[in-house]
Design goal:
This is Glutamate synthase domain-containing protein 2. Residues 143-461 form the Glutamate synthase domain. Keywords: Membrane, Transmembrane, Transmembrane helix. The protein has 16 helices and 15 strands. The protein has helices at 2-35, 40-44, 50-67, 78-87, 157-170, 212-219, 250-256, 276-290, 307-316, 339-344, 349-362, 380-388, 398-403, 426-429, 434-459, 484-487, and strands at 109-111, 129-131, 139-141, 145-147, 173-175, 191-196, 224-230, 242-243, 264-265, 294-299, 324-328, 370-374, 393-396, 472-475, 481-483. The strands form four sheets. It has an eight-stranded parallel sheet with strand order 4-13-12-11-10-7-6-5. A three-stranded antiparallel sheet has the order 1-14-15. Helix 4 (78-87) crosses helix 15 (434-459) and helix 12 (380-388) packs across helix 15 (434-459). The chain is α/β, with parallel strands linked by helices and 497 residues long. The chain folds into two domains: 2-67; 120-487, TIM Barrel.
């Protein structure tokens, strides 16, 4: 009995101490809030006013899990992310009881199923496609769906390793992003597309210019299949890449040619490229030195501006052409970017893609230049839509981040990613186990490809690249739908209904 009373006394004393400390803390916060001048709410409503900031920070998470409907959340809704998460398991990804998608929203794509689709034995897998016929070492790309550029530095070591190993298992390519070639890109033995940003990370000399010796060395790597000259990206059209200084450790600094803690700020464009003539000259130069196919990535502001480039290619000859063009939409990207650029600059992919496809085809370069679509294309419907409009390949970054376990915490730019994908904090990185995640990457890629092939089969063609604009209908303001071929006829006159 005595021992019990003693314990109760200790608990009571502990309770009083806790209450006393809480009162003291409130008093101190009151003094701080009433004397500070930076926040009017806290000054007028000391202590209580602090809850506003707390709820503001927590609001995005509460909305995600408790309040937002499956198809309401931005930038990617719950339905989109759940499809990816389920696809990564490699198991059945079917749903019951009908669609939750509102098919009356203007702009919604609806695929037109065939009355008599091909039989199962008349259906074929997507054929490989040749890229860069004039290069010393052309590339035969096996997959229609691949991983878009995410630099080591912007994403973590285990994330890069998982992507590399997953890409190899799925038979897809991995774009290095503009941060240079890290050893972890090579761990899986996958096909790599080396992205050359405006800062020339990994290929620069002491002055920041392109170093031909380094270029030739990278081109000789059997895993590097192509080079992509980055002109612009959807997150930051008109502005170079941004790698916060807190992410630049010794290893990343060595790969990129920076100082530890120095922000990796790329110029807003390539200094040696002032016009389309310079662009084509640079492409030819990189292709000659490396021996690999070369293309470029950009965001379209106006398709009229690009007419000059295609005219110049026709004048100079097809050997002057880029081997591919990656079209990124102005819908934002994976990392750090100013909000005005994310929200307001650059055409969305749904407008820019058909415009560039039409320009290419009108100048007779369909078999010479491959079109790669990128920009918020994470689900099979997105990929199939892009193929219908004329894309030869589709790449995704954020889709593969979801396959790694991304929860859309919106911490990519703060080095505090809770899933370990976009952080270099060892404590947070340990949550991302590459040996387990690479299978999810591979499963996601395979699931997308399989579902796109299923859509192609349903609309009545043998494989995805045979889909045309007439195969996808777009919902209008009145709720009806019309073939995209009626909205924007392709150059080949594909206007059938």
């Amino acid at each position: 009995m005595g021992a019990a009373m003693y314990i109760l006394q200790l608990l009571a004393l502990g309770f009083l101490v806790v209450i006393g400390l809480a009162v003291l803390l409130v008093f101190l916060l009151y003094l701080v809030d009433t004397t500070q001048t930076g926040d009017a709410i806290r000054r007028n409503y000391p202590v209580i006013g602090r809850f506003r900031g707390l709820f503001t920070k927590l609001g995005e998470f509460f909305r995600q899990y408790f309040f937002a409907m499956d198809r309401e959340e931005m930038p990617f809704n719950r339905a989109q992310r759940d499809w990816v998460y389920h696809a990564t398991t490699g198991r059945d990804n079917t749903v019951a009881f009908g669609s939750t998608r509102n098919l009356n929203v203007p702009g919604t794509p609806i695929f037109a199923n065939a009355v008599f689709p091909p039989l199962d034995d008349q259906f074929a897998l997507t054929e490989p496609m040749l890229i860069g016929p004039t290069a010393r070492i052309p590339y035969v790309a096996r997959s229609i769906f691949n991983i878009s550029g995410m630099s080591y530095g912007a994403i973590s070591r285990p994330a890069v390793e998982a992507l590399s190993r997953g890409a190899a298992k799925a038979g897809i390519w991995l774009n290095t992003g503009e941060g240079g070639l890290a050893p972890f890109h090579l761990l899986g033995g996958c096909d790599l597309v080396y992205q050359i940003g405006t800062a020339k990370f990994g290929l620069r000399d002491a002055e920041g210019n392109l170093d031909d010796a380094k270029l030739a060395e990278v081109g000789a790597n059997p895993h590097v299949k192509m080079f992509e000259l980055k002109l612009a990206q959807g997150a930051k059209p008109g502005k170079g890449g941004i790698l916060p200084g807190e992410k630049v450790n010794e290893e990343i600094a060595a790969i990129r040619g920076l100082k530890v803690g120095q922000p990796g700020i790329s110029p807003n464009r390539h200094r040696e490229i002032d016009d389309f003539g310079d662009l084509l000259d640079m492409i030819v130069h990189i292709r000659r030195v490396s021996g690999r196919p070369v293309g470029f990535k950009t965001v379209i502001g106006s398709s009229d501006d690009w007419e000059e480039m295609f005219q110049l290619i026709v004048e100079r000859g097809p050997e002057s052409a880029p081997d591919f063009i990656s079209i990124d939409g102005g819908e934002g990207g994976t990392g750090a970017a100013p909000m005005p650029l994310i929200d307001l600059v650059g055409m969305p992919i749904r407008e820019s893609l058909p415009r560039m496809v039409d320009l290419r085809d009108r100048y007779g370069l369909k078999s010479r230049i491959r079109i790669i679509a990128s920009g918020k294309l994470v689900n099979p419907s997105d990929v199939a839509w892009a193929i219908c409009l004329g894309a030869d390949f589709v790449t995704s970054a954020r889709g593969f981040m979801f396959s790694l376990g991304c929860i859309q915490a919106l911490k990519c730019n703060r080095n505090t990613c809770p899933t370990g994908i976009t952080t270099h904090d060892p404590r947070l990185q340990k949550g991302l186990v590459a040996e387990a995640k690479y299978l999810k990457v591979a499963n996601y890629a395979k699931s997308v490809i399989k579902e796109v092939e299923t859509i192609a089969h349903s609309v009545g063609v043998a494989e995805p690249r045979l889909m045309r604009r007439r195969h996808v209908r777009i919902v209008q303001a009145d709720g009806s739908s019309i073939p995209f071929s009626k909205i924007r006829p392709s150059y080949r006159g594909d206007t059938a209904t």
